[in-house]
Amino acid sequence: MDPLIASSKLSASGLQAQSVRMRVVSENIANANSTGRTEGSDPYTRKTVTFRAELDRALGAAPVAVKSIGADQSEFPVQHDPGNPAADANGMVKMPNVNVLTEMTDMREANRSYEANLQMIKQVRSMITSTLDLLRT
Predict the structure, then answer these.
(1) d(Cα 109, Cα 106) in Å, to the nearest integer?
(2) Residues of the chain with pLDDT under 70
(3) Is 120 exposed, middle or buried (0-12, 13-18, 19+ CB in 10 A)?
(4) Under a CB-based contact definition with an 8 Å cutoff, are residues 124 and 11 in contact?
C-alpha cells in the first residue's frame, strides 16, 4: 500500500479514537455535579476510555482504536448537603468521582492529539497534490 495512503489511514484512526475520548470527557464534565435521585443512591460515575493498537497487515502498521469505555472504580467523595434528595439520614450526599481539572487536562490532551492527526492528513493531502502537479507538467 502507498505510504501516503497508509499514513492517512493511521491518522484517521487517531482522529476517530480522540473524537470518542473528547465525547466521553465532555460527558464527564457535564455530569460533574450529578448526584443520585434518591436517598443513598450512587451519583454519576466517571467514564474512562481505553485504547488498543490493531495490527493491520495491509497498512503494515498498528492504527489505534477504542478498546472500551469503562467506569472509574474510585470512591465517591461525600459532601454534607441535607437538602439534597440523595442525602442519607446524616445529610451526607455521595458526589460524582469526577475531577473537572483532570477532565479539562484530558480534554486538552485529546484535542492536541486530534489536531496532530488532522495536521498529518493535511500534510499527506498536500504531498499528493504536489505529486499530481509534478506529474502533469
Answers:
(1) 5
(2) 1, 59
(3) middle
(4) yes
